[in-house]
Amino acid sequence: MLPFRLIYHDRYDLNFGAHVFPTVKYKLIRERLLAEKFAEPEDFVVPEPAPEEDLLLVHDADWVRRLKTGTLSYHDIVKLEIPYSRQMVDAFILSAGGTTLACRLALADGIGFNIGGGFHHAFHDHGEGFCAINDMAVAIRRLLREGVLERAMVVDCDVHQGNGTASLFAGDQRVFTISIHQYNNYPAVKPPSDIDIHLPDQTGDEDYVEQLRSKYVPALEGHRPNLVLYVAGADPYYQDQLGGLGLTLAGLKARDRAVMDAALERGVPVAVTLAGGYAFQLEDTVSIHVNTAKAALESLEAAKTGRARS
Ligand SMILES: [Zn+2]
Fold first, then answer.
1. This prediction's pTM
2. How far is the centre of ligand 1, averaged over its atoms, from the C-alpha of 90 (Å)?
3. 22 pLDDT above the threshold of 90
4. Dist. CA 102 → ligand 1 center (Å)
5. Pairing of strands 152-156, 227-231
6. N or C: which terminal CB in the chain sees fewer CB atoms within 10 Å?
7. Gap between the Cα atoms of 76 and 188, Å rounded
């Protein structure tokens, strides 16, 4: 059995039909992890939907009401860029529950891995770019309120800047946000994170990891969070339909290790969310996310060995 849990629900599938966002990926990741015998059925846990009071720690009550009652405006739906269905809304609310659970399990086990979530383009009063509910913000606000957390850090490595997350935590000293992304890409307007690493088009593996480490490690030591939320987007991949960076499968896994090693070596647990991934070959998106789970195990084992030695 794995030393950490994988959080998954069959209803994570947002079921958009023909859409560039293949939300069937969640199910395929679970199947691949089982087929490769990386995980056993007992390694998976099922989340509960985030309660309304948790959603309201982050989102405007009217936005939540419009989502739940199916009364989004035409403008709301155009900005979301996904077709409305109650199933879609339920999947977002379930994903927020999943990320909250990932954070709790990370605090217990070192890693908590949500095979979902990472909806970083959701703002206080609207959704954008396939994101209606900001699951990381819901989880962080909930755990801050409980007093389980004092300080958190969001490390957003999706190819798109984490505009919703940056906006939601602007001015909140407890939550440090880092986003490393392709500069010439959506969103056109990028509300400032605490650190934004704006990368030029086609940035490759070594440059990417070096730039990430040079900003992230000092921030980790300065902010001293109780928890890192890692947004492990698969879309910095060189074969991504919506991305323009140049990372390979190996480079993406090196990125995963860099984020998780630095945190775990310092005794900081990591909650993982998956975010985007639009590779021309769906199998590649699945491989990238499966590799993140493998990297999590390697980082956890490396940190344990390192601590035992010191
Ligand atoms: Zn993205």
1. 0.97
2. 21
3. no
4. 20
5. parallel
6. C
7. 18
Q: Helices (DSSP H) in 126-204: which residue ranges?
A: 135-146, 163-169
Quote the CA–CA distance of 237 and 78 in Å, as a whole number. Answer: 26
DSSP state string for 212-273:
HHHHHHHHHHHH--SEEEEE--STTBTTBSS----B-HHHHHHHHHHHHHHHHHTT--EEEE
> Which residues have C-beta under 5 Å from ligand 1, the single-atom ion?
158, 160, 233, 235, 276
Q: Tell me how crowded residue 44 is: count the other CB atoms within 10 A of its CB.
A: 18
Number of H helices, E strands in the chain: 10, 8
Average pLDDT over residues 37-61: 98
In eight-state DSSP terms, residue 197 is E
What is the per-residue pLDDT for 309?
Answer: 67
Is the torsion defined by CA of 163, 166, 169, 175 positive or negative? positive
| Tokens at 48, concatenated | 């509960």
Which tokens belong to 64?
């939540």
Q: Cα(82) to centroid of ligand 1, in Å?
A: 14
Tokens of 219: 């921030």
Q: Are 8 and 82 in contact (CB under 8 A)?
A: no
Structure token pair of residue 289: 């996310």
Work out the number of other CB atoms within 10 angstroms of the CB of residue 49.
Answer: 18
How far, in Å, from the CA of 25 to the mean position of ligand 1? 14
Task: Give the integer Cα–Cα distance in Å for 49 and 54.
Answer: 10
**pLDDT single digits (tens) 227-274:** 999 999 999 999 999 999 999 999 999 999 999 999 999 999 999 999
Percent of the chain with pLDDT over 90: 93
Q: What single-letter amino acid sits at 231?
A: V
- Residue 55 burial class via C-beta count within 10 angstroms: exposed 0-12, middle 13-18, buried 19 and up: buried
